[in-house]
Specification:
The structure holds two protein chains of two kinds. Chain A is α+β, with helices and mostly antiparallel strands. Chain A is 21% helix and 38% strand. The chains are: A alpha+beta, B mainly alpha.
């Protein structure tokens, strides 16, 4: 039984470790600092695992992580609505360690709000 | 090294990789297949490992191994192709990621453990038939298997976006 306890402990530690380093998980972004801004899409990568938008924020090119393609579509978005050159409003959180990287909680295309979580 | 990076770039820009990234359902479908394969391989392996550790010692080891281990192997049929395709979609980052190579190394340790177990530890029991308690070497193989597979799953989770 002692051996079983040791194994369980090792497994628990590994599982904890696997949750602390999710690269683009919500926990990697500073959710106490929601950033609300309008920006033109400079480049759009409409692909899995995440749709990425490159925008200028404070004069610097910033990569904004949107949602996986299936979630984008189920919330009513498509590649055409946010294509290169479109200006949309973002509510996004800055990455805790990566400079010029954000993750969008929601976006506004025209007057319509799209939740991305 | 240069050639390796170029190869990774070529893989990531290949029609297959682009097709999977841009498909609405293919990427999540591959993830589902990959995880189902892990369930089959690791699930069956864990149940056998627990028997090696002495749980349910009323069950005959030989019969249990004949039932569980072929299913564990069939898990590979789901895991390997889906894993290769998922690798293609992000080859440039994964190919140089120490976590990825840790995962590959751990899978090789798991394979070596399987080889050692069947070749040296379990072989005499297959001939004589094994019931009840197994030698400590068998228990050690069980522990190694459980710990290594948990670590492999943890690495996989770290690699996924």
């Amino acid at each position: 039984m002692a051996r079983f306890k040791n194994i369980s402990l090792a497994i628990a530690l590994l599982i904890c470790a696997s949750f602390t380093v999710l690269h683009h998980g919500w926990a990697d972004y500073d959710q106490t600092k929601p950033t609300d801004f309008k920006a033109k899409i400079e480049d759009l990568t409409y692909e899995n695992p995440h749709v990425l938008a490159k925008v200028k924020y404070n004069k610097e090119i910033t990569t904004v992580y949107l949602a996986p393609v299936t979630r984008m579509e189920s919330r009513g978005l498509n590649a055409d609505m946010i294509k290169k050159g479109t200006t949309i409003r973002f509510v996004a959180y800055p990455h805790k360690t990566e400079k010029n990287e954000m993750r969008a909680e929601r976006i506004f295309v025209g007057k319509d709000k799209y939740e991305l979580r | 090294m240069q050639a390796y990076h170029q190869w990774l770039e070529w893989l990531e820009k290949s029609a297959w990789a682009v097709g999977i990234r841009q498909s609405l359902w293919l990427y999540p479908a591959l993830e589902i297949v990959h995880i189902l394969g892990i369930v089959l391989l690791v699930g069956a392996a864990f149940l056998f490992d627990l028997r090696l550790l002495g749980f349910s010692s009323n069950l005959p080891v030989t019969a249990l191994s004949k039932h569980l281990l072929p299913w564990s192997r069939r898990g590979l049929i789901l895991i390997v192709p889906s894993g290769v395709l998922l690798f293609l979609t992000n080859a440039q980052a994964l190919g140089v990621d120490p976590v990825f190579w840790t995962k590959v190394g751990l899978i090789m340790v798991a394979a070596l453990n399987v080889f050692v177990f069947h070749r040296f530890v379990y072989e005499p029991f297959k001939r004589l038939g094994a019931d009840g308690k197994l030698p400590y070497a068998a228990r050690l193989c069980g522990v190694v298997s459980i710990v290594v597979w948990v670590a492999v799953v943890a690495c996989g989770r770290l690699l996924a976006y």
